[in-house]
Amino acid sequence: MSDNQQAITEDQWRRAALVWDYHQMHHRPRPVDVAIGLGSHDLGVATHSAELYRAGLFPTLVFTGGNSPTTAKVFPRGEAVHFREHAIDLGVPSKAILVEPDAGNTGQNITLSREVLAAAGITPTTVLLVSKPYMERRSFATARKLWPDVEILCASEPLEFDDYVKSIGDEKLVLDMLVGDLQRVIEYPRLGYAIEQEVPEDVHGAYESLIHDGFTSRLIAS
Which Gene3D superfamilies match (predicted)? Predict the structure, then answer.
């Protein structure tokens, strides 16, 4: 941890772990019509998408995502393009991958991926969303709102909380992101972006406490 990073207390870790677990849908992967790998800073999405493809769970994989301030330097040609290249390196045939290179948020990930699939003549009834671990619930809620006629399953790299934090290398940032995504789960339904989901009392309490402790860099104005 660098000198300018915030030291995380044991109690903050415990509360963050509650939020982490809530964000994951705990769906069991099974065969689906298509998978959509949601672009982000986390190349593990592409890695896990490739693993699930090689396991025979779907014939078609869409990678979606343009650039954001947090990914432009890492993925200068766009998230989806880099994810595709990584998946091909891991053995996914290029013909099995469709690319949606323009999405700038989760709603666009879903809507534009749906358009790319339609243009390819694919109308799925089951869709597997592959995302960062703490983004499963938000992506599920968004897809259920925007694509209600398909069955949505979610998957992410099967990492424990501590291992994920180590893979990112910035404890404070990960806790900020956990808090920011939970805020979106809570706030987006009233804005029409996602379906409503129950937040257990202990998870909501952990969320409010982490905000009080200053894990706020990924919050949106509400």
Answer: HUPs
